[in-house]
Amino acid sequence: MTTNNVPYYHNCHRRPILPGVVLLLFSVSLLLSSVFATPAVAEPPSRFENYSGARLQTLDKSTARTMTFEMGVGKIVKFGPLYISLQACRKAPPIETPESTAFLQVWETPPPDHKPVWVFSGWMFASSPALSSMDHPIYDVWVLDCIETDTTEAESETGAGAGKSTKTEDETVSGDR
């Protein structure tokens, strides 16, 4: 039923347009204010603290042996045919989300040709080892934590200024082949 070519609607089906437009405008203004608003108090950037050593863990996939050891920054440890060098270790402050990260360089000297081959060079993260992992068919190395090495105690034990369980360049981690 139409009157003057205008469809006739019953009053219960009519909805005023104004509340819908107001709701839409309010939603858009809320969205824009949340996107473009600057926070009143900005959070300070996360600052990592430098540590003098790291606790690392290794895995020999052929024998299924794992080994945990500590090493100091600037030291080199030999694990099987791998040489591991710790360049830096940083850890988030206690009030931040826990995170330890270390810059490691790993290279291999295979017996037949004795030419060093780079295996890994980069940052490893303790909270997510798969994020930046070493790709080797036999060995795995990952960071557990950053530590402070006690240089006064280590000097009396080793005379080299290394950490308690830190190995020098000519020393190897026990359990090597």
What's the structural blueprint in terms of helices and strands?
Layout lengths: L1 E2 L2 E2 L9 H20 L12 E3 L1 E8 L4 E8 L3 E4 L2 E10 L8 E9 L8 E9 L13 E9 L3 H7 L20
Antiparallel strand pairs: 1-2, 3-7, 4-5, 4-10, 6-7, 7-8, 8-9
Question: Describe it for me?
Answer:
It is elongated, with a radius of gyration of 31 Å. The strands form 3 sheets. Strands 3, 6, 7, 8 and 9 form a 5-stranded antiparallel β-sheet that branches. The chain has a 3-stranded antiparallel β-sheet with strand order 5-4-10, with no helix packed on it. A two-stranded antiparallel ribbon has the order 1-2. Strand 4 (53-60) and strand 5 form a beta hairpin. It folds into 2 domains: 2-36, no CATH class; 49-157, no CATH class. Mean pLDDT is 74; it is low at 40-44 and 152-171. It has helices at 17-36, 151-157; strands spanning 2-3, 6-7, 49-51, 53-60, 65-72, 76-79, 82-91, 100-108, 117-125, 139-147. By secondary structure, it is an alpha+beta fold. Helices cover 15% and strands 36% of the residues.
